[in-house]
Amino acid sequence: MRRSLAICSLVAATSFGCGPGEEIEFAAVLPLTGQYEVYGIEIRKGLELALEELQNDTSYPYQLTLDILDSEGDPGQAAELAAQAYSAGAMAIIGGVTTDEALAMVPVADRNDRILVSPSASSPELTGISKNFYRVFPNDQREGTTMGNFAAVKLEIENVVILAKEDAYARGIQEVFKTEFERNGGQVPDVIQYPPGAADFSGLIDRVLTLDPAAVYVAAYAQDVGAMISELRRRGYVGTILTTSAFASPAVIEQVGEPAEGVFLTQAVFEADSDDEHIAAFVSAFRSKFSLSPDLYAAHGYDALKVLAKALEELERPIASDMWKGMRKIKDFPGVTGTIQFDERGDAQKFPRVYVIESGSLVDYEREVEERRKELLDRLRRLEERKKRAAGGG
Q1: Residue 386: exposed, middle, or buried by beta-carbon count in 10 A (0-12, 13-18, 19+)?
Q2: pLDDT digits (tens, 9 = 90+) for 160-219
Q3: Rounded CA gap, 136 and 369, in Å?
Q4: Cα distances (angstroms) measured from residue 287 to each of 46, 272, 296
Q5: What is the DSSP string of 106-161?
Q6: Which is nearest to 248 in space by CA: 269, 233, 227?
Q7: What is the pLDDT of residue 179?
Q8: pTM over 0.70
Q9: Sign of dihedral through CA atoms 201, 101, 25, 13?
């Protein structure tokens, strides 16, 4: 058995002005090393900021501690660490960063009758899987549907080749995308799948170039998506590239560089430059603590812990087996990733939007189009007014 890495012992043991309430222990199981660390590291930052704020809040009735453990991206290790954390007294766990990790951890949560909250797992396979499982990230049913509709209706793309990793996450979202795209009249000439651990994508790209599709939809995690985008552009592919929120990592987008320009992706709405007072306060605190802006995953980590803290507060007594009741009582919680409440299947009611990468940044496509349309209409109106004035003066 590989040894787990307790990352947050200092955070867990340090007091930030805690009140006199009962101490409650939570845990988080995240991929802080390995191929999915790009998500785990940012989620950890969001968790640490949320914990600090809760421990500084003298009106909050409990003293919270958080033990953060490294799953290394391995589902088996994630499940083992979850079992250890529950046995050590964790009332609830934040984890299941990837879909495969979440699927492995849910049975552990059920055996212990404890809550598991995922900050980022999104496969439809997880919907309604257990009364103990909740997620603050939107279900891929909505994300895949959004992109399938957008590609066929808004972009008027006629055919798409799908490149998908052979895992639970990619399988779920690409099937939803394919169904919606075809429902709107699009064609999918091929779904090209590749096994986990593949490092050479040249054969996959050969197949894409042979088919010469109008667009390619890449369903995988960030590093693989980045590698395939780079290889597609290097090999001269000039069609449209579509992908998922798994690519919404500023670090990976920066690493890919120029080939990422113009790539479309779906993601839950989180705007670091929002004028919303609640979001602006979070972004300011995050920048002050970490000297950088939060990304989508840091924001969902932050919300995951805040939601657990709220659920605990909803209980008459802090009993671990009753935490699901607190989760069900959450209504219109003001998260930084949007208003949060859970349906009867444990899904947060969120609606993803389509973004496009411009100058290395994620831009809300429809909002940008609408703003440009308004600018054009304003220019046309001013031109018309000048023409009327000129005609009246003549």
Answers
A1: exposed
A2: 999 999 999 999 999 999 999 999 999 999 999 999 888 889 999 999 999 999 999 999
A3: 28
A4: 11, 10, 14
A5: HHHHHHHT-EEEESS---GGGTTS-TTEEESSPPHHHHHHHHHHIIIIIS---BEE
A6: 269
A7: 97
A8: yes
A9: negative
